Amino acid sequence: MLLAEQTSSSQSLQTVQSTLNMMQEMMVKMHELIAKNHDDKKTEMRTEIGDVKNEIHNLNIKIGEMQQKMLKNEQKLDIVEARTEKLEKRIEESEQNWKELCGEIYESDIYGARKGIFFLRFQNLMEDKKEDIRAVMINLIAVALQKPSSEIESEVDEVYKVHTQYAQKHKLPCEVHIHFAQKSTHDLLYMKTRDGPLFICMYPAEAPSNTPSPIFCPAFTTTKTVFWGENVRKTRRSMDLDKELDRIPIPKGLQKEIILKAIMLSCNRNSAPLIIQLTNFLKFAKSDWEQIGMHVY
């Protein structure tokens, strides 16, 4: 009986011992598993921490680059602002200059328009290299307006010659431009010449009392017209006038050049033909006498 009890107790002890061993082995395995898991977690954490550090480092680099770019942009903005200020100043100066220029142009236009009111051009005035064009024009205008030369002298502002291509091409005298100081004189002379060219006959001081007065005749159709005698009209170019004179008997006391000046008359296409008889005043003419034709417009 005792032997059986001892045997059963020993078996139970062995069972307990094996159970304890199994539990111990399980504990060891659990410790190993926990340690392994801990190492894995630790490694994983280290890896993740390293990745986070790398990301933070990259972010810091990017932030630094962004800060540099922002700094450069701020510098560029400063430069742009400075340029904008300069540009605005230039624009203001340009606007001011434009205003002044427009004002000057406006004033010059007004001045030119006002000056044009007092302006006349004279054509077909025979030239002399030694002549005083101002004195000649003052005398001619004085005769045309029947005023004293001293009065016309104060009313004439500028007198000068202008070379035109038309005059050079056709070998005509230069145009004479006159600016009058008073509009009344301009208008009076223009009214006398608006219907056609103005022809002024200049006679010597010792001319007889019955010498005809200066002629203000209307225009006629042809470009150059030769008038001689009664009811005779011959149309010729200016280059043919010299040949035409060879066919005409010249009165005594008259030079051929003077008659050539007398018969070179300006004209207007739109007016009716008109025969001007030179015999009425040629009989009073002398060698120092000449007729000057002026076309005023």
From TrEMBL:
Superkingdom field: Eukaryota
Keywords recorded for this protein, A-Z: Coiled coil, Membrane, Transmembrane
Record's keyword annotation contains Membrane: yes
Coiled-coil annotated residue ranges, if any: 42-104
Xref: SUPFAM superfamilies: Tropomyosin
Stated name of the protein: Transmembrane and coiled-coil domain-containing protein 5B
Species the sequence originates in: Ophiophagus hannah
Gene of this entry: TMCO5B
